[in-house]
Amino acid sequence: MNNDLSQTLQAEVTEALTNKQTFAIMGGNSKRFLQPANADKTIHLANHKGIIDYQASELYITARAGTPLDEIEALLAQHNQILGSEPPHFSQGSNKATLGGAIACGFSGSRRPFSGSLRDHVLGVKILNGQGQILSFGGQVMKNVAGFDVSRLMVGARGTLGVLLEITLKVIPKPEVETTLRFECLLQNAPQRMADFARMSLPLSAMAWLEGAVFIRLHGTEQVVRNVQQKIRGDEILNSPQFWLDLREHTHPFFHSIQPLWRLSVPPATPLTMPENEVFVDWCGGLRWWHTDKPAEVVNNMANQAAGYAYLFRDVKPVTGPQPPKALLPLHQQLKKAFDPYGVFNPGIMGVSS
Fold it and tell me: What is this structure's pTM?
């Protein structure tokens, strides 16, 4: 379905400005484990959808913010292409992940260290700012420009800078073959083992540690993958796509724990000191998912000491989600004033209020 609600959404924001009301922005509501904004009204984007432009030969796609991610991925699959950052959906039942929600949250999957983050693949956006103006930034091709890349500022901003209307993304070819190999490895040895694999110039598209083993995903032509497999050995796992999908979508049994789930982003070589049954390591060691009841101060200090950061990702109640580091909070507040000077959108999110 192709449905452009830009003018309707603009009218809603204009009315809210007149009445001095605030909006919570909602797409498919798939990320409802994150605490919602404390706003007067909700602006719904799920029906503002449709693929506007797709040039497979030029490796880009433009779609409205409410377009379901699975529809975009299905279209790309017809042309043997994929979203390079493998953004997670976290869809549940009728709550389907949308392109706008994925961009607003900025989450990337296991392919990130090798193909780039979701932010790296954003070429342009059209937004509705907090003054009721529709603005466009970027384009359809990669360009080197000075100053802020405004389109990429929207990635991970969780709607605090404006309502995403349209997004243009770079896409990448789907590998001809992908195979996952398993290597037994103690948790404390995982950072070094992963670093060793990374130095071997292998055709990698994912690397993780889970339940006593390092998993590496090889990609390329069938001949290249088989040659590498014969060289480094390892145990080939069955149903490799499902394995990485379960990790990306948090449907793997590891994520079924009732303990709070923390997300730690740290340098890959950072030692792993948590119990083996409590942690899943992704991004070649740079991302750690940790089930723990330890106080927030303890987890945050552990990440800070490693020159990284941490936040509570999921708990029995909705969580606040990622916040700008203290050093960057003033910058985010300045951007908020520029794009949403009256604090219309998502008050209380990302450390800013209306």
Answer: 0.93
